[in-house]
Amino acid sequence: MFSADRLDPGTRLLLDTVPAPPQTGDLLDLGCGYGPLALVLAARSPRAAVWALDVNRRALGLCERNAARSGLGNVHCVTPDDLGLPTRVAVIWSNPPLRIGKQALHELLARWLGRLTPGGCAYLVVQRHLGADSLHRWLEGEGWPVCRVAARNGYRVLRCGAAAPHPGPDRPGPAPARPGPDLSTDSTPAG
Hints:
Strand order of the largest sheet: 3-2-1-4-5-7-6
CATH class: Alpha Beta
Oligomer: single chain
CATH architecture: 3-Layer(aba) Sandwich
Radius of gyration: 15 Å
Order of helices and strands: HEHEHEEHEHEE
Number of helices: 5
């Protein structure tokens, strides 16, 4: 399990820098693991449906347990082939599974970025030395509007999609987001 004993610095950077998610609609945590991004999405957008997606059933079980322990009934922990998945999502947050290989990662991102609603966007956090800059170039080459919105300690947060550009010094950003749930949730299997 990725970063099973703590919140990794890349996920922390993403949570510290992304704007508040939409209050309603379908939101996606792509490669959810034990669920830190899904739990924050659900806490910040209690009227939205949060789809925590992973191929690892053990991870989904942990995510489901953590959502229940946090009282977040709007989290749906699913595999990619789940028939209940929406055809469109308003936002994607992801610390994508880079270790699956470049080709598999490109296929994964192309599949799910294609589900963004008009005006929707994805926020991806990637380590620089694991290919953040080459992923940025690939996304641009595939026609996805992409920009780097944050960098810290070797991590990059990329914003990708058709929504308006990320706020800059000459454009005010969204109101500060509410704090998310306690992220010291359980990442160990029951037993």
